[in-house]
Design goal:
Layout: E1 4-9, H1 19-31, E2 36-43, H2 52-55, E3 61-66, H3 69-81, H4 86-90, H5 94-106, E4 109-115, H6 120-124, H7 130-133, E5 134-142, H8 145-155, H9 160-181, E6 184-187, H10 190-199, E7 206-208, E8 233-237, H11 243-263, E9 268-272, H12 278-281, E10 289-293, H13 299-304, E11 307-310, H14 320-327, E12 332-334, E13 351-352, H15 356-368, H16 370-387, H17 390-393
Parallel strand pairs: 1-2, 1-4, 2-3, 4-5, 5-6, 6-7, 8-9, 8-11, 9-10, 11-12, 12-13
Helix pairs in contact: 8-9, 11-15
């Protein structure tokens, strides 16, 4: 008889087209082979509500609650004023709590898995005693969100820097509480574990469950080009309403791209990703910048690229965009921030650089040396196939 798992996720894990959704979807897909899963999740885009049907392939029950971003922000600020984190208030809904209470009262769960720290709020506010909810409580922190908010505070001006720093403090306190009460705390990399231990030396029952990449899907040999692309071409793929991605492409376009254009005046930089922020769309004033918006399949843009860049100055954990580009056999130039969770040295499977002048130089060198670029891409693909396989890495979630 299969064990039962209640899985709570702050964002609907379908379609798996951005970082957290890729990880949560693959966790559910993997666990569904061994366990019976009931899923409670939220959708901040009304269009995503329809994907509940796709998830029923892996789950016995699926309930998706709409998340209104405006009311969420209001509740988040009220939560901060009350002494809790913005995140706790933003993702909390009484209707979700009611469903959680009903399911945990009528059904027996061997484990409850919360994906992202705000979902633990439903455990702490449950009608039943925490010890009676399930035998095992697992928190997948993925990255240390509190430190991400602290990074935001260092990059913004008053009053946002004050709000973000306060959020970092309150969220860290909540993360400590979760670790103290939950059976297991999961992080995406040892670097995230070490960071949490630095903030909270008393932390217990911590485990690394690394990300993976679908290297069968992200395979250049299985990818066709349905349009004509320019050459030379640089590509960045990522959700373009996410602050770290926005900051990264603006920095690259303003500080690095002009240096590359001095050597390759015909270079085109493709920014591929959904919901581009106004500050991103303004970059297309430069004729060397192309902004696609949402695309159904990023593989075509990866395959067409001569070099993929990951110019993130704010990042935590393992960036799926790095793994995907490497799986597509592409030469990659990344900042050190974007590959913190990957044990790798510059020049081995990709190039790593934080200085804008040197970043540009490394891109230029790869654009000018096709043989070296191809060899680096082949080595990158072999690396992710060997070390970033979902089936192997997710075994740490067995209950």
């Amino acid at each position: 008889m299969k064990k039962n798992i209640l899985y709570l996720c702050h964002r609907i894990p379908y379609p798996p087209n951005k970082g957290d959704k890729i990880r949560s979807f693959n966790e559910i897909k993997f666990l569904s082979k061994t366990y019976t899963i009931d899923l409670i999740t939220l959708a901040d885009d009304p269009e995503d509500l329809k994907y509940a049907e796709n998830l029923k392939k892996y789950c016995r029950q699926v309930v998706v609650f709409p998340l209104n971003k405006i009311s969420g922000k209001i509740k988040g600020l009220l939560s901060l004023l009350s002494g809790q984190s913005i995140s706790q208030g933003y993702f909390y809904q009484k209707k979700i709590q009611s469903t959680f209470n009903r399911w945990t009262s009528s059904g027996h769960y061997d484990a409850i898995i919360c994906f992202s720290s705000p979902m633990a709020e439903y455990v702490f506010r449950a009608e039943k005693r925490i010890k009676e909810l399930a035998k095992i409580l697992i928190m997948d922190f993925c990255d240390l969100d509190s430190d991400k908010w602290y990074q935001y505070s260092q990059k913004t001006a008053f009053p946002l820097n004050f709000i973000y720093k306060r959020e970092a403090t309150k969220l860290l306190r909540f993360e400590k509480k979760i670790n103290k009460i939950f059976s297991k705390s999961v992080f995406v990399s040892q670097k995230e574990v070490d960071l949490f231990l630095e903030y909270y030396p008393e932390a217990r029952n911590i485990e690394v469950v690394a990300n993976g990449v679908d290297h069968v899907f992200f395979n250049p040999d299985n990818t066709e080009l349905f349009q004509i692309f320019p050459s030379p071409m640089i590509t960045f793929c990522g959700a373009m309403d996410y602050y770290a991605n926005i900051d990264g492409v603006i920095w690259f376009t303003k500080k690095i791209l002009p240096l590359i254009k001095q050597v390759f005046p015909d270079i085109i930089f493709y920014i591929v990703g959904s919901n581009p922020d106004a500050s991103v769309t303004s970059l297309k004033k430069d004729p060397a910048v192309k902004i696609t918006g949402f695309v159904k399949d990023t593989r075509e843009y990866y395959k067409a690229a001569d070099v993929c860049v990951i110019p993130l100055r704010i990042a935590r954990g393992v960036q799926n965009k790095v793994l995907e580009a490497m799986s597509m056999g592409k030469p990659v130039v990344s900042t050190s921030h974007a590959i913190q969770g990957i044990q790798i040295h510059s020049g081995e499977y990709l190039e790593i650089e934080d200085d804008p002048v040197e970043f540009a130089r490394k891109v230029i060198d790869l654009l000018g040396d096709t043989e070296r670029a191809q060899n680096l891409g082949k080595a990158a693909r072999s690396f992710v196939i060997r070390d970033y396989n979902w089936e192997t890495n997710l075994q740490g979630l067995y209950v």
